[in-house]
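TL;DR need structure tokens for one chain.
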Amino acid sequence: MSSPLETELDLEKLFLPVWAQEQPAGNRFEKYTGTEGDQPERRRGGSRGDSFGGGGNRPRSGAGGGARPGGARPGGGTGGGPRFGDRKSSGPRRDDRFGDRNRRPERPEPPAPLPELGVTFVPVENGVESLARQIRVTGRAYPLFQIAQLVLDKPERYSVQLAVRKNADGTPKQPLFSCALDDTPWLSEEEAVAHVLKNHFATFYTPERTATEPPKGVYTFVAQCGFSGVILGPPNHHDYQNQVHKLHTERFARMPFEAFKARVKIVRDEAVVKKWVEDQSFKTEYVCLNVPEPLKLPSLEEVEKHFRAVHKDSIIKPVETFTVAGVPSRALRSRELQRLVRSEWEQHKHFPLPVATSLSRSFASHGLHFFKVNKTVTHVAVARPQFLDLEANPVSENIKRIVNYINEHPKCSRRKMVEALAPAPAAPTVLEVKPDAPKATEPAEPTPEQTALIVDLHWLVHQGHVLEFADGKLETAKKPVPKPVKAEAKPAAVAPETVVPEAAVAGTEVPAAAEVPTTDATAVVELEAAAVAPAPEPIIPVVEPVIVPPTDPVNQNVSVPPVS
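>> reply
TL;DR here they are.
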């Protein structure tokens, strides 16, 4: 069980700069002397000739120097051995020496796909309560995503929840099983059964050895596994092939059988042969435990069959979800599950959105609020920002001074504000005759003016009028920007009412078509049909008159009697 120091987070220390946090207990550089990286000084004079192979005091051949020590250079000739450009050189060619560089390195095999399971990191409830209590007491606003990353830093602060994902038809994409003996998750029944028979074998079975007749014959050598050292017996023994296949299946199933068989060696040591003979002189049987009737099984294969038939359903069960603590999640027995949890943890550590969402729900249940700074970073605090209008709301003089000071000095700290608005009186100087040992200076008690300022600042912070961030910077809540007023839609234009002549309603006769100056026969027919038709509803659309230019000068003087 994790201790409170591991699960609870101290936000006051964790959000400080690295250099301001607690110093390590030991000195990390105590084993260094400070001279590990120094280079030896170069000697003047002949050192350059000695180090670079020429110059200095080195004698030249043929100029007073003797013969080359050790005889002439290999290759003969006064000029030494093979030189650059000599085609008859016996050394390797350039293409042969650097031919390996042109070979492309073999690409590693892609990793196996991860199991299709849902992985969720849930913060520990005790740690969330501790965080909420600190935020309420201090009143500071902390970035939510940084808190989520702090939770993921240590496994004691979270638990891992595994969930089965299903296909469209309802079948699971990857089944999930749990072992009730040690509360461990597994991806298949075979893995879970092998785990129980390996780690909890004594709970269900106990081996019992019985003396039998030793194998007949004289054996001078036996076969032994080159990996595990298990003695397999003489190759001509009747049970040799069964032992080879059994060992490969139990311990080296991932290796090809031919590769495993190639590592089997022949041993002629008398002690090894004698040990195998002694092992064959006893017969091992397995007594079943926790069964109503006593039963003995001759081999491990029979043990596995018995376990599947009797104990499997009560010990290994399929589950939809499984929750494991943070510390055991980093050492799961199933390799594929451990690889899945590790991969998901790395993704969450890069962008902990699911953890931040879980924290927001827990914080909301504890009465905390959320807001965004500059519409980007989400913070959690004891109250949301609320603008305080000093002109509209009657407040005390200290509150006005605090708000005005923060507006005039952006990103100021609580300490600077208190020192500026209520400076402490200067302490009297005391002359000491004898210097004593240095003592830790105790913080001076705040004055009544400073206490009043701190109380008013506490009220402003808890009301949301002033924001105090994790780094101690103060900021006032901004005035909300008024929303733009949407332009109202103009009403649709109403068609003017049509005035219907009384004569048309009363059935007054319309002048004959012959008297209308027109040359369009269609228009004349329409006027006649309108005169014969019965009176319509009160609102009748007016038929626009057809204006036709006169063609006959005689008809220009024809007049239509007005309608009364």
